[in-house]
């Protein structure tokens, strides 16, 4: 099945995301810890390009395959097609979602970052499988992040499109994750909470715990 409705712990990382451990070590530990989705997001001044990026992407993909976790690539549609990634995630400034859908076909996941009901409507019309909404809280991982919108924006989109899978992103930690789950998201996406955790397995468990403990009440 292309799309899992199981609550998602969606880990995003680039080759530079972790301050202490090597990225492949971080990824493998996160996979062991139970992440359900992985997105390779290679950005910034020291971003890998060309064959270095290709090699890094292939290494990440191999690890994800070992744990049967979908491997999704941010923005770089050609790379995703070339290595048969499981999905692509794009922002509002990237290529139009319908063009990406046309290029990747129906079997790959397509995620789109949105910030309003209108953008969510367009993403649905363009056959996105899920939308990312953020930043929910203040984030230090995205240089051009918008002002934190809290969970209000998520609730508004959820209200308008109850069946649309929404992933909350931006500044999510084990302390505030429960608020995001309570807004009705399908998943939460994080970079630093996992990439910089001392104990990645415990961090992932803590991100999941609010869902299990509190939402089902
Ligand atoms: N997109 P962290 S915020 C990649 O608002 C990304 O669309 C965002 O990193 C958005 O979990 C963000 O460390 C960074 O805050 C998320």
Give the CA-based shape: globular
The major sheet is characterized as: 8 strands, parallel, barrel
**How far apart, in Å, are the first and last alpha carbons?**
29 Å
Strand ordering within the main sheet: 1-2-3-4-5-6-7-8
Instruction: Give the SSE string.
Output: EHEHEHEHEHEHEHEHH
What is the multimeric organization of the chains shown?
single chain
Mean pLDDT across every amino acid position: 93
Ligand types: ligand 3NM
Enzyme class: transferase
Pathway: Cofactor biosynthesis; thiamine diphosphate biosynthesis; thiamine phosphate from 4-amino-2-methyl-5-diphosphomethylpyrimidine and 4-methyl-5-(2-phosphoethyl)-thiazole: step 1/1
Binding site for 4-amino-2-methyl-5-(diphosphooxymethyl)pyrimidine: 39-43, 74, 113, 142
GO molecular function: magnesium ion binding; thiamine-phosphate diphosphorylase activity
Describe this structure in words.
- It is a single chain.
- With 217 residues, the chain is an alpha/beta fold.
- Helix 1 (23-33) runs parallel beside helix 2 and helix 1 (23-33) packs parallel to helix 9.
- Helix content is 40%, strand content 17%.
- It has one domain (8-216): Aldolase class I (TIM Barrel, Alpha-Beta Barrel), CATH 3.20.20.
- Helix 2 links the parallel strand 2 (37-40) and strand 3 (71-74).
- The chain has helices at 23-33, 50-66, 77-82, 97-104, 117-125, 152-160, 177-182, 192-195, 200-215, and strands at residues 8-13, 37-40, 71-74, 87-90, 109-114, 130-133, 166-169, 187-190.
- The chain binds ligand 3NM.
- InterPro entries: Aldolase_TIM, ThiamineP_synth_sf, ThiamineP_synth_TenI, TMP_synthase.
- Pathway: Cofactor biosynthesis; thiamine diphosphate biosynthesis; thiamine phosphate from 4-amino-2-methyl-5-diphosphomethylpyrimidine and 4-methyl-5-(2-phosphoethyl)-thiazole: step 1/1.
- One of its GO terms (biological process) is thiamine diphosphate biosynthetic process.
